[in-house]
Design goal:
6 helices, mainly alpha
């Protein structure tokens, strides 16, 4: 598993835990940085992901809700919701990651962590975001 893949997984863990505990992700991130517990220190890319997703979450959720036909944000499995937020942030707000890589990484995490239907759902919705990217950023 590559360094960025591990960083994505760690960011997913922080965002998922914050959502489940209904606490601010950036506060939880600060806690994990100060006291990593039994895990290694969080990679900088995990920090960038958590901070980026948190800063843009309202816009990201609006896009996901608009383009996920028949699914509200609240109805999505929690892991899928977080993966979609991470993938959308990488696609729209991180020029260092090619769009195809952001989609593939989210799909692979969904394959390992979520339902049998999740990889195709995540792939389809992030693919739609990639297709619409030129109009979303204008």
């Amino acid at each position: 598993m590559g360094a960025r893949t591990k960083a994505r997984k760690r960011a997913l863990d922080v965002l998922f835990e914050a959502e489940q505990r209904r606490i601010d992700p950036v506060s939880l991130l600060a806690e994990r940085i100060a006291e990593p517990g039994t895990q290694a220190a969080l990679p900088q890319y995990s920090v960038d992901l958590v901070e980026g997703v948190t800063a843009e979450q309202e816009r990201i959720d609006e896009l996901l809700a608009t383009h996920s036909h028949g699914w509200t944000i609240e109805r999505m499995p929690a892991v899928d919701r977080v993966l979609l937020r991470l993938g959308t942030w990488e696609i729209l707000f991180n020029d260092d990651v090619p769009d195809a890589v952001a989609v593939d990484e989210a799909v692979e995490l969904a394959r390992g962590l979520s339902t049998d239907e999740s990889p195709s759902f995540v792939n389809g919705l992030l693919g739609r975001i990639v297709d619409l990217k030129p109009t979303l950023l204008s």
